[in-house]
Amino acid sequence: MTYGISRRGLLHGAAGVAAVSALGGCAMGGDDGNDTGGGSKGEVSAANPLGVKEDAPLEVVIFNGGFGEEYAKAHEAMYRERYPKAEIKHSATQQIAETLQPRFVAGDPPDVVDNSGGSQIDFNGLVSQGALTDLGELLDAPSLDDPSKKVRDTLLPGIVDVGSYDGKFLTLNYAYSAYGIWYSQKLFEAKGWAYPKTWAEMIALCKKIKAAGIAPWAYTGVHARYMSWPILTAAGKLGGLDVLKAIDNLEPNAWRNDSVKAAAEAYYQLAVDGFLQPGAEGMDHIQAQTEWARGHAAFVSCGSWLENEMKAVTPPDFRMAVAPTPSLTTGDKMPYGAFRGTGSEPFIVPAKGKNVRGGMEYLRVMLSKKAAADFTGKVSSLTAVTGAAQGLTLGPGLTSVTKLIEDSQGSAFTWLYSTYYRKLERERVNAATLELLTKRINAAQWCDKVQKAADEFAADPAVKKYKRA
């Protein structure tokens, strides 16, 4: 397996890019030193701590997915207020890898990239080839809201960790995503159902839901990894954070841990008992979530971008809400309120961009409370900025997310393997989870299959390895 982003890597990571055959470069065009002193540079001052050249053009490429692109246009306008002489080139696409990998290889990447979505560029390759700017200087710059505070001190816990590789902060995950199980408060109140806190309660409720003529669970077979999220969340809550750290570190038999197996068996039971929506294996995430929003299913696994992603089809009185993944037992190591919470929507500043300092400054603008509040207001998602949503009128989904965070009392957690080794989750875990949910394999076989894939990644010298402490 070859996962480096080189000319050969393009063939693996972005099949169908017509420009591949015309590319003359062989590597990503990175710089192991990640020197932010190159490119356009202006005079450093209290008002311009990153030394942005005031008339240097800035190119921003946005992933046009669940959040759309309007928030970015607003951020660009805020940047333009600070640097009116700077010309800003904006573009948006859902094909990040297909569009930008040839430019990385040619040494001509944009200045800021929202490297998100199903076609994002593999971070392992970007990092291993030194293609990303070390954003440590951004973290230590004064925040726009309070110059006495460093940018790093305005971020929510975990944002720096999830964006760091080998001790370098290379990715700003701008959105804060809470993951859990979503349901309609209107439906549950009408039926007299209470959200289950334990797995035994979940199975008992699923029987009632099915008897009412509603599929208990919707899921996306195309992106079956969405259902691996509650499996791993349940495993972490049952066995503790070390269970997930072992997975992140590609340790032998990490996926065969008893807690992982117990969680896989629980979600396999949904398939065995007929609690999954018929036909779900062929649905993409939008189709599955639409079925849920139309009341054809009671539960769906997703992150907190769901409300904005489905606003066009969600009934006004649906009142979507998110809750923690049910505890597998009454003796789980983590409390019921613990949930997976982490940064998402990863922004990068390519090391070979023409305006690296402008790229970092753009991220500093994004991390102001004004920009963060505007983002939340537009897309119904929290950001990495502490307290930026205070005073805003939020929709029912995001209101439930803030309650989830408050009720957790600081017990949020996450895993990093899907960041370190994207293809392990997007391809191997995704495929195995679909087989599990369609009863082609059982829970033990799922654990074996994913462990075999993880072992292949661990043994592959072409895959850069990371260590989670």
Automatic annotation (TrEMBL):
Organism: Actinoplanes octamycinicus
Family annotation (PANTHER family): ARABINOSE-BINDING PROTEIN-RELATED, SN-GLYCEROL-3-PHOSPHATE-BINDING PERIPLASMIC PROTEIN UGPB
The name this protein goes by in its record: N-acetylglucosamine transport system substrate-binding protein
Compartments where found: Cell envelope
Superkingdom assignment: Bacteria
KW Transport (keyword) present: yes
Family according to the record: Belongs to the bacterial solute-binding protein 1 family.
Any single GO CC term annotated in Swiss-Prot or TrEMBL for this entry: cell envelope
Chief location: other
